[in-house]
Amino acid sequence: xxxxxxxxxxxxxxxxxxxxxxxxxxxxxxxxxxxxxxxxxxxxxxxxxxxxxxxxxxxxxxxxxxxxxxxxxxxxxxxxxxxxxxxxxxxxxxxxxxxxxxxxxxxxxxxxxxxxxxxxxxxxxxxxxxxxxxxxxxxxxxxxxxxxxxxxxxxxxxxxxxxxxxxxxxxxxxxxxxxxxxxxxxxxxxxxxxxxxxxxxxxxxxxxxxxxxxxxxxxxxxxxxxxxxxxxxxxxxxxxxxxxxxxxxxxxxxxxxxxxxxxxxxxxxxxxxxxxxxxxxxxxxxxxxxxxxxxxxxxxxxxxxxxxxxxxxxxxxxxxxxxxxxx
Length: 327
Description:
Layout: H1 4-11, E1 14-17, E2 20-27, H2 36-43, E3 47-48, E4 65-69, E5 72-76, E6 87-93, H3 97-103, E7 109-116, E8 123-129, E9 134-139, H4 157-160, H5 162-167, E10 174-184, H6 189-200, E11 204-210, E12 213-224, E13 229-237, E14 249-254, H7 258-270, E15 274-275, H8 287-293, E16 295-302, E17 309-319
Parallel strand pairs: 2-5, 6-9, 10-13, 14-17
Antiparallel strand pairs: 1-12, 2-14, 3-4, 4-5, 6-10, 7-8, 8-9, 11-12, 12-13, 15-16, 16-17
InterPro entries: Glyas_Bleomycin-R_OHBP_Dase
Protein name: VOC domain-containing protein
């Protein structure tokens, strides 16, 4: 009998491909690694990226750690104040059995819940980390299984010593980021969908979830005949007061070539959305600079009819020619 991932992939009927190619990473500042290392590696089963592993050394000047999950990543740089997604993050696993056994006694987990969704009849593990970020873990097809981020393996002890012994694994147990869901203001879901259609030519859907609330679904990669995409950004309307934006960001790839990336940059530039984050060195405020860095940034999601900001969310937008492209 095939694995859940194999069975799902065999029956999937792809009817569309979004121009937003891969949702690669979520960046969350953390005050220390005390809870982060056991949460992402021991509990979630992510792999330690060798490109940032030396930052675990006590005398390292930079403290950023990358926790890898298939083709996806979590970037976890040091920051005085922990950042939090105002919503939740969905993760995929081949099986939840090992995860369920690990959450019980972990000090890195603030709270957890194990249950079955009454609508889909799918089992889930809901986790809240010590910084109040919420993760929903479910079984599902691996995200872009032909692409993978590098991780330190158990055989790498000669180079990485105790890090390989403690964190090394042949592949990440977490198979990738399924979605990131953000709460958004009332009556904004349709405007947000138009924003992604206009700037990225993305495949989007707006769904009425009842109670006068809607959710915008922004697709990444392949979309099947049931409307399920490889990955998604979700924007769910809420009447609750949203917290001030704290600087967390997402990174993703667009198109299939550098030419597609150029089109995306020009769209963003035309809408006045290109932004330079002074925290980083990639000052891509022209097309030539964006080509040099193979990426650029935006910070505002706007109403395309009048240019007013709907919500803040930094986007790190990359070309598939970027050196970190996992394909």
